[in-house]
Amino acid sequence: MNKRTKIYEGKAKILYEGPEAGTIIQFFKDDATAFNNQKHDVLEGKGALNNRFSEYFMQRIDLIGVPTHFIKRINMREQLVKKVEIIPVEVIVRNVVAGSMAKRLGLEEGMALPRSIVEFSYKDDALGDPLVSDEHVTALGWATPPELDDMIAMTLRINDFLTGLFAGIGIKLVDFKLEFGRLVEDGLMRIVLADEISPDNCRLWDIETNEKLDKDRFRRDLGGVMEAYREVAKRLGLLQEENSEIRDHKGPVLVSDNKD
């Protein structure tokens, strides 16, 4: 096996140089972190599930006209993506009051918002990813006004799509965060969706019970983190239960959309 060149290692992923110029291999770790890595654990199988989640969502988001960095899933834990220049701003969409918004504004968690709210945070773990305004984003040169407009428009389109998709399987999309990057192809630069989409960066509640099916189960010591992730995967059709006679031996297996 050829030795890979590691580009970057984060809390949940490792990036390696890809097989061709302009590509990167994104490896999904089993690590679970919260509160800027103050809380850490390893959850067996989380990386493989998040790889599959991200493939599923990226492929469908591309179909609604939002460009992404995704090329293909390589194996259970790795996917091939286009190399982009990450914009150091996270775009957060809130449909329901939860998490830091509830604490920050003294609002009741679970309160539906009259309309979706878009927030921005500066990507800096040492600073705790502080909230910033669109004026900060453009004045400090993290993104130009047209780039920011593109990011907001794509985010709202993704929110509309994902809200409907999750509602169809009995899940409420409470909030989520996205990252974008600059992709240069054929001498032209455009903004594309990057990073990942999974229960790691989405708040997902069961519509009937409000049971949390996301990373909050880890943050809040609720237990059953992997069970919740698998429940989401099962509702999306990403997990296929084996025949009941052999289920105890083989368990659920990931279902692939890959045509390669």
Q: Can you describe this structure in just a few lines?
A:
This protein has 260 residues and is α+β, with helices and mostly antiparallel strands.
What secondary-structure arrangement, pairings included, does this model have?
Layout: E1 6-9, E2 13-17, E3 23-28, E4 31-34, E5 39-42, H1 46-63, E6 70-73, E7 78-82, E8 85-86, E9 89-96, H2 99-105, E10 112-122, E11 131-132, H3 134-139, H4 145-167, E12 171-185, E13 188-194, E14 202-206, H5 216-219, H6 225-236, E15 239-240, H7 247-250, E16 253-254
Antiparallel strand pairs: 1-2, 2-3, 3-7, 4-5, 6-7, 8-12, 9-10, 9-12, 10-11, 12-13, 12-14, 15-16
Question: What features would you describe in this structure?
Answer:
- With 260 residues, this protein is an alpha+beta fold.
- It has 2 domains: 91 residues, Phosphorylase Kinase, domain 1 (2-Layer Sandwich); 122 residues, D-amino Acid Aminotransferase, Chain A, domain 1 (2-Layer Sandwich), CATH 3.30.470.20.
- Helix content is 28%, strand content 33%.
- The chain contains 7 helices and 16 strands.
- The strands form 4 sheets. Strands 8, 9, 10, 11, 12, 13 and 14 form a 7-stranded antiparallel beta sheet that branches. A 5-stranded antiparallel beta sheet has the order 1-2-3-7-6. Strands 4-5 form a two-stranded antiparallel ribbon.
- A hairpin with a 3-residue loop joins strand 1 and strand 2.
- The two termini are 21 Å apart.
- About 5% of the residues have low confidence.
Structural category is alpha+beta
CATH superfamily of the largest domain: ATP-grasp fold, B domain
Strand content: 25-35%
Write down the oligomeric state. single chain
Outline the biggest β-sheet: 7 strands, antiparallel
Q: Which residue ranges are poorly predicted, with pLDDT under 50 across at least 5 consecutive positions?
A: 241-253
Global outline:
globular
Query: What level of helicity do the residues show?
Result: 25-40%
Order of helices and strands: EEEEEHEEEEHEEHHEEEHHEHE
CATH class of the largest domain equals Alpha Beta
Total of DSSP H or I helical runs spanning 4+ residues? 7
**How confident overall, as mean pLDDT?**
92
Q: How many separate domains?
A: 2
Distance between the termini: 21 Å
